[in-house]
Amino acid sequence: MLTDLEKFLKNIRSKLDVEQPDDQAIWEGIRSGLQKGHNRNIKFSELRPLLKLRKVAAVLIVAFCLGYIAYDLLQPKLSGTTHVSLADINETLADREKQYQVTVRLKQDELRHFGTVENYIISELVEEIEHLDTIYDQAMADLTELGYDEQIINTIFDTYEKKIQLLELIILETNKIQSHENEEINHL
C-alpha cells in the first residue's frame, strides 16, 4: 500500500537525484524575476515631493530641538533668578526657615564658647552635620529646578531639625567631656 506521496516520489525520483544544478533554469528564474521587478520601479520624479517633505520635516525637528535646548540653558539667565528660596514661595515658610536658622546659629555660637574638643563621637556628629548640609544643598537645588514641592519643603525642614538635634548632642557630649575633665582635676 503506497501512499500518494510515495507514488509521486517514485515517479520523479530520477529528476530529484541530480548531482549538479540546472544552471539554465536558475538563470531563467532570475531573469524573469528581474523583469517583473523592473516593471514595479517608481520613477525618481515621483519621489521628489516625498524627499522634499522629509528634508523639511528633518529641518523643523532639528530647529525645534536646538530652540528647546537654547531656551532651557538661557531661561535662568533671562529670568535673573538662579536660586529660589522659601521666601519666594510662601511667607510662612520663610518665617519658619528663619526660626530654624536662628536656632542653628545660637547652637553653633554655644559650641564656639566651648572651644575645640577632640572626641570620636563629636567628630562623627560633625560628619553627620556635613552630610545634612549636602542634603540641604541638594534640596535647595531641587527646589530651584522643580519649583514648589511638598516633599522638598519637608526635606529642607527635616535637615534643619536634624541639624539642631545633632548640635544639641555635640553640646551635651562636650559638656560631659568638660565636666569629666573638671572632676579629674578636682580629684588630683
List the helices and strands and how they pair.
Blueprint: H1 4-11, H2 13-16, H3 23-40, H4 44-79, H5 86-89, H6 91-114, H7 120-146, H8 150-187
Helix pairs in contact: 6-8, 7-8
Summed up:
By secondary structure, this protein is mainly alpha-helical. 85% of the residues lie in helices and 0% in strands.
How many helices in DSSP terms?
8
Rg from C-alpha positions?
41 Å
Stretches where pLDDT is under 50 for at least 5 consecutive residues are: none
Count of all domains: 2
Structural category: mainly alpha
| Element pattern in H and E | HHHHHHHH
Distance between the termini: 121 Å
| Overall shape | elongated
Q: Name the beta content range.
A: under 5%
Number of strands: 0
What is the average of the pLDDT values? 79
User: Into which percent range does the helicity of residues fall?
Assistant: over 70%
Largest sheet report? none
Walk me through what this model shows.
The protein has 188 residues and is mainly alpha-helical. The chain folds into two domains: 25-82; 86-178, no CATH class. It contains eight helices and no strands. The chain is elongated.
Features:
mainly alpha, about 0% strand, 8 helices, about 190 residues, 2 domains, elongated
